[in-house]
UniProtKB/TrEMBL annotation:
This is Ammonium transporter. The keyword Transmembrane helix applies. PANTHER family: AMMONIUM TRANSPORTER (PTHR11730), AMMONIUM TRANSPORTER SLL1017-RELATED (PTHR11730:SF62). Belongs to the ammonia transporter channel (TC 1.A.11.2) family. InterPro entries: Ammonium/urea_transptr, Ammonium_transpt, Ammonium_transpt_CS, Ammonium_transptr_marine, NH4_transpt_AmtB-like_dom. It holds the Pfam family Ammonium_transp. It comes from the Bacteria. PROSITE patterns: AMMONIUM_TRANSP. The chain crosses the membrane at residues 14-38, 50-69, 110-128, 135-155, 175-192, 204-229, 249-268, 275-293, 299-321, 333-354, 360-381. The keyword Transmembrane helix applies. It is a multi-pass membrane protein. Keywords: Ammonia transport, Membrane, Transmembrane, Transmembrane helix, Transport.
Length: 416
């Protein structure tokens, strides 16, 4: 009989790890999406940001972030200080059975959580693209992934005060996506818009990305990786109930993304008289963000409708932020912030165990903490080392000034 719990433990651990790999693959999706939506002269630098932030996130979360998030007292506000990720589960604990018996490896839990941290940081890179200094961004990544994100993560998934008040966020519409968007918004405010983006009398000038096929590939990679993001958050699949839940989560995740694309595409056609590809891509991501707070409770049709609302909101938000002169080259704040809020608020619509009060408290708690903490860090970095390249460097492109190479050297003469 001892073989059965060991087999179940192995299966759940393996599932956790595979879902973590899928979420790690989202790093490639963000890289391709952002590389496609910036100009060719800034491509190598945005790719450098993405691979470097992933490495920094993994290291900082290993050193301090995971301990801060999961080693503190229940219901608290301030996390306990500490380092590293602790010891692994012993065979005796697994075989002991009972409600407190571990059913997956601690190392698999760390691996799954660390790729979520990298996802939150990836949201920031696209919003500040084309005009931020590389090393200032990487310095912020150290603080964001090691300290800022783990604190609000402790409040929620770590059993802190937001968890105690009843905040519900299955896979992180607020915990991951709104947090990343709040940090990005603070950075965009301090950084300012790209040169030539906004003119006099409220005029707005489009700055098209260099490679829309690449951006589309990135979106499909993110869509695929999201099955691990949401599916892995069930945390178990070795029994009938959990396996059925995982299947429902996969179906709902896919339905919401599809709903987001269709809604964004239709609204863009009605509003702009064109089928805007970039709005369709952001519509897919908006649908995915919207369903992330609860991909289990809705029916498949309900998930599609939740995603569709996200698709409509993202188009409205992108246009509105432009009117406010908040320059976000990839629409990250709209996708992950505005739609992240919608996703959290949508939970009580289909989940009887959630209510609007705790959801609103959670939104405010996460946003205020991450935004204010990030704003302070951005301002310190601006004072100490500067966060924006010079106007001449921005014109030449940050590939050459920050990385000393070009992603497309054969087109180097064209500064599109």
């Amino acid at each position: 009989m001892s073989e059965l719990p060991e087999l179940s433990y192995a299966l759940d651990t393996f599932y956790f790890l595979i879902c973590g790999v899928l979420v790690m693959w989202m790093a490639a999706g963000f890289s391709m999406l952002e590389a496609g939506l910036v100009r060719s002269k800034n491509t190598a630098e945005i790719l450098t940001k993405n691979i470097a932030l992933f490495a920094i996130a993994c290291t900082m979360y290993l050193l301090v972030g995971y301990y801060l998030m999961y080693s503190s007292d229940a219901g608290g506000f301030l996390p306990s200080l500490g380092a590293l990720i602790g010891s692994e589960n012993g065979v005796e604990a697994v075989l002991a059975g009972g409600d407190d018996a571990p059913y997956y490896s601690m190392r698999s839990d760390f691996f799954f959580q660390v790729v979520f941290v990298a996802t939150a940081m990836s949201i920031v890179s696209g919003a500040v693209a084309e005009r931020m200094k590389l090393w200032a961004f990487l310095a912020f990544a150290v603080v964001m992934t090691g300290f800022i994100y783990p604190v609000s993560g402790y409040w929620t998934w770590g059993g802190g005060w937001l968890s105690e008040v009843g905040y519900s966020d299955y896979a992180g519409s607020g915990i991951v996506h709104l947090a990343g968007a709040a940090a990005a918004l603070a950075g965009v405010i301090v950084l300012g818009p790209r040169k030539g983006k906004y003119g006099k009398n409220g005029s707005i000038y489009a700055i098209p990305g260099a490679n829309l096929p690449l951006a589309t590939l990135g979106t499909f990679i993110l869509w695929m990786g999201w099955f691990g993001f949401n599916g892995g958050s069930e945390l178990k699949m070795s029994d009938v109930s959990s396996a059925n839940n995982v299947a429902q989560v996969f179906v709902n995740t896919n339905a919401a993304a599809a709903g987001g694309v269709i809604a964004a595409l239709i609204l863009a056609k009605l509003w702009f008289r064109k089928a805007d590809l970039t709005m369709s891509l952001n519509g897919a991501l908006a649908g995915l963000v919207a369903i992330t707070a609860d991909p289990l409770s809705p029916s498949a049709l309900g998930a599609a409708l939740i995603g569709a609302v996200g698709g409509l909101l993202v188009v409205l938000a992108i246009v509105t932020l432009d009117k406010l002169k908040l320059d976000d080259p990839v629409g990250a704040i709209s996708v992950h912030g505005v739609v992240g809020i919608w996703g959290v608020l949508a939970v009580p619509l289909t989940n009887s165990g959630a209510s609007f009060g705790p959801q609103i408290i959670g939104i405010l708690g996460i946003f205020v903490w991450v935004f204010v903490a990030s704003l302070i860090v951005w301002l310190i970095l601006k004072a100490v080392m500067g966060i924006r390249v010079t106007e001449e460097e921005e014109y030449e492109g940050v590939d050459l000034t920050e990385c000393g190479l070009e992603a497309y050297p054969e087109f180097g003469a064209s500064k599109s």
